[in-house]
Amino acid sequence: MPTSMTDGIAKDETRPPTKKLTVGEEVAIKMVSVHKWFGEFHVLKDINLTVNRGERIVICGPSGSGKSTLIRCINRLEEHQKGKIIVNDVELTGNLKNIEIIRSEVGIVFQQFNLFPHLTALENCSLALIWVRNKPKVEAEEIAMKYLERVRIPEQAAKYPGQLSGGQQQRVAIARSLCMNPKVMLFDEPTSALDPEMIKEVLDVMVELAESGMTMLCVTHEMGFATAVANRVIFMDFGEIIEQNEPHEFFNNPQSDRTKLFLSQILQH
Amino acid sequence: MEDSLILAAVLSLVVYIAIVIASTIVAARKGRSAIGWCILTLIIPIAILFVAIAAPAHTQTATSAAHYETGTDPGTRNLIARLWRNQETRSVIIQIIALTVVFTTLALILRNVVINLEGLGKEFSFKFLLYPASYDITFSPFIEYSSRSTHLRAAVVGILNTLLVAACGIVLATVMGFIMGVLRLSTNWLVNRIVYCFLEFVRNIPVLLHILFIHGLVVTQLPVPRQAVNFSDSFFLTNRGLFIPQPIWEPVAWVVAAVFVISISFVFFFRCWAKKVQDKTGRVYPVLWVSIGAIVGATALAFLATGMPLSWDFPELKGFNFKGGLSIKPEFVALWLALSYYTSCFIAEIVRSGILAISYGQTEAAAALGMSRNRTLQLIIIPQALRVIVPPLASQYLNLTKNSSLAIVIGYMDVVATVGGITLMQTGKEMESMIIVLLTYLTISLVISGFMNWYNKKTALVES
Amino acid sequence: MVDGAKTYEVGQHPEMAPPRSEVGVLGWVKHNLLSTPFNVVMTLLAIWFLWSVIPPLFEWIVLNSVWTAESRKECWDKMEVPEGAACWAFIKDRFGLFVYGFYPADLRWRVDLSFILLVIAIVPVLYDNMPGRKFGLLYAVAFPFITGWLLVGGFGLTPVETDQFGGIMLTLIIGVTGISFSLPIGILLALGRRSNMPVLRILCVTFIEFIRGVPLIALLFIASTMLNFFLPPGTVFDLLVRVLIMVTLFSAAYIAEVVRGGLQGIPSGQYEAADSLGLTYLKAHWLIILPQALKISIPGIVNTFIGLYKDTTLVLIIGMLDPLGVGRASLADAVWAGLAREVYLFIALFFFICCFSMSRYSLYLEKKLHTGH
Question: How many CB atoms are located within 10 Å of the residue B190 CB?
Answer without folding.
Answer: 19
